[in-house]
Queue: 3 jobs
Job 1
Amino acid sequence: QVQLVVSGGGLVQAGGSLRLSCAASGSTLRNYAMGWSRQAPGKEREIVAAISRNGGSTKYADSVKGRFTISRDNAKNTVYLQMNSLSPEDTAVYYCAADSGFGISLAATRYDYWGQGIQVTVSS
């Protein structure tokens, strides 16, 4: 079992940046590929970024590629999502997720554990 706690959300103006953090307890993050998901009202959850267990591989949804960066520090049991050049379309509740399977994926069904959602609001 792994428990995930997210922090770093809030309100930012368009063009600004935020960094989300996901701290894990109960298990070491080395055992999991990790992902960041978001869900806007009326829409399905989508994985916007994923990273392999050792951080050697990453994947990004087209909607955030080039603007968001996922990284991890396994020694601190923490995963990060750096979000740059934010636009109102990025407004959503963001979630950290852990994948106990193999490889990395942008499919939400691959993820086994989910952290508490945190609101990110981008104003124009």
Job 2
Amino acid sequence: QVQLVESGGGLVQAGGSLRLSCAVSGRTFWNYVMGWFRQAPGKEREFVASIWGGDSTMYADDVKGRFTISRDNAKNTVSLQMNSLKPEDTAVYSCAAGLVASRSANAMNYWGKGTLVTVSS
């Protein structure tokens, strides 16, 4: 079993920063693709960022340059540093793990409960 628990969400003003963390427990080789997805009210869950292998990364176009995904193998955590936040970034952010690098949420096998990020203007 793999368990994922997100933390770090909250309320922040536009232009501010937040750092989300995902604690990973269970069978963890760090060979999983680790990703962040988000879901805003009335919208489908969308890809944000992922990391795999030798720290290869992939980002959604609308967050590239503002968000950075990273991992700390010693602490079994995956983080998402979010800078220059916009009101459009408001969503529930979820950590996920899968076996292949994909922008599709359907490709991910394990999910955390999510953490709410609210960006005010």
Job 3
Amino acid sequence: QVQLVESGGGLVQPGGSLRLSCAASGNIFSINHMGWYRQAPGKERELVAIVTSGGATNYADSVKGRFTISRDNIKNTLDLQMNSLKPDDTAVYYCNALLRTTTIPFLANDYWGQGTQVTVSS
């Protein structure tokens, strides 16, 4: 069984920083790409940042220059460093991975974590 577990969320003031982490575990054969998504109340889930297996990164325009995504391919972990946080960044942040399991290594599927709350408020 595969699990993605997020951590690091919390309450911060505008202009502050947080670092989110995601740990993937289970019968993983390989991971293609990993990313962070977020969903605010009344809003659709949106892509925040993504990193491919080769290390290429892409960011939403709203977070460019403020957020940094990174991954550790040995430990199967994913991080999101968030700086200069704004109230509009308030949302539940979800870890996502496109991966193959040892049971079915020829088929890649999407897996999601439970989410971690980030609240930016004074």
